[in-house]
What does this fold into?
Amino acid sequence: MQIAENLVALIHYKLKDEQGNLLDSSEGQEPLPFLCGAHNIVEGLEKALIGKTVGDKLDVVVKPEEGYGEIRAELVQKVARENFQGIDDIEVGMQFMAEAPWGQQPVTVTAVEDDGVMLDGNHPLAGQTLQFSVEVTEVREATDDEIAHGHVHGEGCDHDH
Ligand code: ZN
It folds into this structure.
């Protein structure tokens, strides 16, 4: 069976940045499942996997526009300290959910200054060219529920989304 839209595929993967630093890996863990066509994984990787089958190994370079997007300056904002009522220590690297016009947006504190807190709503991998090495370990039919929900069911599936 070849990977195609509305099929479930499982992959082992290694993800490196442009400089070759390892960012993430499924090594020592269960392979990553995704429902093809449901935007479970970045577009560039999904495109490269279509038509592949169990045992296929491939290296895929994904540019930001088919990965986590370009860095968007408008997602970096300085917010007054008063907006963090009840939080005594705000430190660089802390993450919060912020209300954005399009819904909840995860943001990361990038600086704490006298006149406010710098928040960055860009994905940590925005603007980066990603290098994936993947191996397909399973391809199967999706259930009707999986297609309706747009994600793979199984261990670790949570139904909040
Ligand atoms: Zn579900």
